[in-house]
Amino acid sequence: MLPGELHEYSAVEVSRHKSADDCWLILGEEGRQKVYDITAFLESHPGGPEILLDLAGQDAHEEFKQVGHSNLAQDMVEQLCIGRLRADGRRKTKRGRVVLPMASNDHQNKGIHESRLVPLMIAFMVCLFAYLIYP
């Protein structure tokens, strides 16, 4: 698989990931749908993990659009993308392990990765609450 090439998952594969320990969603317009692993974000979601768990393993694009997520929220969700939804009849891309941006397990790199995510999540929550309070 070339760098930048996304792994393809079937809807059946995505549907198997619907627990609090392993939670995936499908988002995107028909024909351009992507698969997102939102497991690490469940507890940080401003609306609570229950909303996401109700949609786990499914296409949640309409629900995501209805809420009117901010550009910041849309940028955040893109960081959780692990692949794209394979259209029926298309050849499956060679399966490989998905590696997130943090390539090393050493504590220094982990701290850098986490220190970037926390402010981004806080900003997202502030935007969401502002949207809910001041519609």
TrEMBL record:
Q: Which family does it belong to?
A: Belongs to the cytochrome b5 family.
Compartment annotation: Membrane
Q: What is this protein called?
A: Cytochrome b5
The lineage's top-level taxon is Eukaryota
A GO CC term assigned to this protein in UniProt:
membrane
Q: Which one of the record's GO molecular function terms can you name?
A: heme binding
Keyword Zinc belongs to the record: no
Pfam name, any one: Cyt-b5
Q: What is its main location?
A: membrane
